[in-house]
Each structure stands twice: as C-alpha cells, then as structure tokens.
Design brief:
By secondary structure, this protein is α/β, with parallel strands linked by helices. The protein has 8 helices and 12 strands. β3, α5 and β4 form a beta-alpha-beta unit. This is Methyltransferase domain-containing protein.
Length: 278
C-alpha cells in the first residue's frame, strides 16, 4: 500500500535484508555452488552494453551477496568493490570471493549505506559505477543518489544502471494488463509480505519493506542534473521473473508476454558518462 514514509524505514529494510541473506545463500535461486563452478550471474544485455571491463576498476553499489560484483572480476576487471548496507550480505560476499581465490586487491566489499559510498569505498573514483536490478526502489532520494554516483565516476568513466521498469509497478498483479497504481506517486510503498523473491515459502520474521517508485524521467533527469551525459536509455521487453502470471519463460531464460499480447517494457538500462573534462 502507498503511505507516508515510516520513521524507521531504513532500519526495517536493513532488518529484512539481513534476515534473508542466509536464505539466499543456501537456496537454489542464487545457486552458489553453480556460481563457484563458473556460472555467470550477469545478464547478456548487461555484458554487451557495458563492454570490455578488462583492466578497469568497477564499483558495484547495493551489491547484496556479491555475485554480480564477482562476475565482473571474472570478466577481467582489474579491481571490483561491492558496497551494501547489510553486514551479513557483505560477509557472505567476502567469503565467496575467498572461495574463488580472488585476493582483496582484486575484489573487496564494504558495509555502508549507498548515500555514504563516497566516504566508505577505498578509492575516490572508478572507471565504472554499476547498479544492478532491484536497487533504486529502496532509495527515497534519487537526487542524492545521483550526486553520490557522479562523485564516484572518474572523468571519462561511466555509470551503468540496469533496473526493472517502473511501469511494471503500475499494472494489476493478476493480469498485468490494467493500470491500477499511480505511476507518479511519491509516497512510499509499505509491504509486510513474508518470505522472499528467492523462496516465497521461507519462514521469516522481519517482513516490513519500504520502497519507492521512480519514474523513468526522474532517473534520467537526476543523472543529467549532476553533469552525467546519458549515452543511451534502452527498454527491454523481458523480465528476470514471472512478474505477472501471463509471462512465459523463454529458452533464453527471460520472461515475456505471449506473442498475442501487446508488449510493454519490463526492464531498462542506462549508460551515463562523466565527460573527460568534467
């Protein structure tokens, strides 16, 4: 439900994520055994749009347990740093990095709020700042986020953001065909659903989540306002999960609407560069 932002929203969200780390690390959704054996956690369009990362430094904001972060290291990034506000998540990521024989100078992880990233990470600027799917909805202030991002991208470097499309949060959950929720709402979305996207039946105690919807125009405008040049905005007709019952899994692993239904964007991606003289 939409509601004014609860005073304890940050503590509620962190308690929720802290509790779910063990569930995610042990479950089939993240499948850490397959990851250790070489499975890539990144999506094909992310790899194509980011391009060659060999020899480059990369900062991953809101990294959770670090699979995407460490995948960039496997693709040749000279140094990756992951940041997350959940201490159990960061400890899990550090253990995972050690199990892959990645030394701290190649892959390190920091416990900090994303808004405090500039003071918390080991380097002042990075070739690439990366944010993966399901991150922006946890942040109430995109202007502050964009300022943080811009301060961490070196001149000539770029932000790469992949996210679920905000339009998907406006449609009815049953069919995904009717506009039910306000696209431009600035209220928080407060939910108390138990379990987790990785295991709907998991027994959990800390179930409150507080999230925000950010229209696409707000995201692009926030990046432009801090001097980043938007190189592209791509919208994708596929999702990572069955957001609506009508979505069907395709051989490439993505979920899409059937061919007889009009398509809508389910994910989007942005690359925004800091000018070399900026």
């Amino acid at each position: 439900m939409y509601a004014p932002t609860p005073d304890a929203w940050h503590e509620a969200n962190r308690a929720r994520w802290d509790e779910r780390v063990a569930i995610h690390a042990a479950g089939d959704f993240y499948d850490l055994d397959s990851f250790r054996a070489g499975k890539d956690a990144l999506r094909d369009f992310e790899r194509a749009e980011v391009g060659d990362v060999r020899g480059r430094t990369l900062l991953h904001l809101q990294c959770h347990i670090g699979l995407d972060t460490l995948s960039w290291a496997r693709h040749g990034a000279a140094r990756v740093v992951g940041l997350d506000f959940s201490e159990p998540a960061v400890e899990t990521a550090r253990r995972l990095a050690r199990s892959l024989d990645l030394p701290p100078e190649r892959a390190s992880f920091v416990v900090a709020d994303v808004y405090d990233a500039a003071e918390a990470v080991p380097d002042s600027a990075y070739d690439i700042v990366y944010t993966g799917l399901g991150a922006l909805n946890w942040l109430p202030d995109l202007s502050r986020w964009a300022e943080t991002v811009a301060s961490l991208v070196r001149p000539g470097g770029f932000l790469y953001l992949a996210e679920f499309h905000p339009l998907t949060d406006c449609l009815d959950d049953e069919t995904g065909s009717a506009v039910t929720y306000d696209y431009f709402s600035r209220d928080a979305w407060v939910d108390d659903t138990p379990g987790t996207y990785a295991d709907r039946d998991a027994e959990t105690v800390h179930n409150r989540s507080v999230e925000w919807q950010h229209p696409l125009g707000e995201v692009v405008s926030a990046l432009a306002a801090v001097g980043l040049r938007v190189d592209f905005l791509h919208e994708h007709d596929a999702s990572l999960f069955a957001r609506y019952p009508a979505l069907r899994r395709h051989p490439d692993g993505y979920y899409r609407f059937p061919a007889d239904r009009p398509r809508i964007p389910l994910m989007y991606s942005i690359k925004a560069t800091r000018p070399a003289g900026g």
